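Record now logged underneath.
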Amino acid sequence: MIFKATIAQTVFLLKKKESVGVFYVLFFLVIVNFISNVLCFQGRDIVEMYQPMKLLLLSYNRTYWNAANTLLLVQLYPLLVVCPAGFSLAREYQRGIRIFLVSRLGNFTYQVSKYLAAFLATMIVFTVPFLLEILLNCLSFPMSAAGDLSNLSIYNSAYRNGVNHYFMKNIYLYSPCLYAVVGTICFGAVSGLLGAAAMAVSSVIKVKYNVFLFLPVFVSLNLSTIVSGRLPKEAPSIKWYDYVLLFHDEGKSMLLMSASVFLILLFSVGAVCASGRKDCL
């Protein structure tokens, strides 16, 4: 029952105008980035060409050359990630739809399927456009190219040190393309967690205006960049995008990333339990 309810809720969320709108925004950014890469690197000799995966919109490495497209994505992300599923539970409360769904599915099934659907729908919206870009780059650029946009030699100690800071470094060394695919899926999974967490807020706090549901994720992500600027230079980065962008070559704390993911999961599970308890009183 939970599986069927989750699939039905996921399909419903993916058809909503918010999900479709976010998908088209991300797809537009991907196409703009791809076209700019094609126009810039057309006719370039393979010896001078950069690794195609490092030209992706999600690639931190491309910021050494042109950060405009990736910076725009980073600025829009805290708002976009809430849109596919963040308002769905609040609207069902406001419109009284929840009563019919709970009476038909049962409170537990309704709550669990709702959060799983929010996670899956957001993950799909934030994964598919970037997987399409990987495919386009594989078809358009020579995969044997090995250049880095920092223009450092692969034998340079600074380059090797940067690669050692890559998340999932061993996958990158095996195959940059596989690394990009796995990294994109991880980016989508983190987006799904944030989308579900945004929806969880509406289950424990009743807001009059849904626009306030943007605030928890927006403030949390931007606060990480503000606080990071006040830390010593030798301290690991706490900026959120340093952990989700591909080919990031600066110091990071895996403990911090794991703790952040755990706290988001804990909050979402706690919200499911709390809202379920209130509904049963």
